[in-house]
Amino acid sequence: MTEKILYHYRVNRKQRAKIFINMAGMSLFYIAVIFALEPLFNITVETDIKFGLTAAFSVSTIVLLAIVIWLYRNPATYEATITETSFTVFYPYQTTWSFKVHIEDISHFEYRSSHSSNHSSAGIVLKDGQYLPISMNYGNSVNKMYAAVKTLKPELEFSQQKKSGFRF
Hints:
It contains three helices and eight strands, in the order βααββββββαβ. The protein is an alpha+beta fold. It has a four-stranded antiparallel beta sheet with strand order 1-2-3-4. The chain is elongated, with a radius of gyration of 22 Å. The C terminus is likely disordered.
C-alpha cells in the first residue's frame, strides 16, 4: 500500500534556468528601448545616461547568461514531498536544507528574520526545538507545504519570530 501524497514539488535546474533566460531577454529588450527612444519619440537621451544604462543592462545580461550556463552544466533536482506520515525535502548538495521528519514530530511552522544579518527564512520547528529551514530558491511554496501539513494537524500554527537586536 502506498501512502497518499498531500504535496509534491519537483523542479530541476534546467527548469529554473528559464527564469534567468527571461530576465536576460528583458535586459536586451531594455537596451533596445534605450536606443529606440530617440528615433521613435524624438527624445534626446544624454550620452552618459545611454552609456550607463546600456553598460548596466549588458553586464546584467552577461551575468544572467553565466548563471544559465552554470545551471545547465550542473544538473540537480530539488524535491519536496509531504505524505500522511512524513515531510521530506531534498535540496541538491545541501544537507543542512535537506531533511525527512515524521509529521507528528512537527511543532509548528515558523518565519524567522534576523535583524543583524538582514536575512529571513521560513521553516519548521520540531517538538525538540530544532529549526529546519525550507529554502525557496527553487520556487516552492512554504504556504502550500504548511496547508498540506495542516490538513493532518489542524492545530498547527505558522508563527513569526521577533527580530533579534535592539529596538529603538
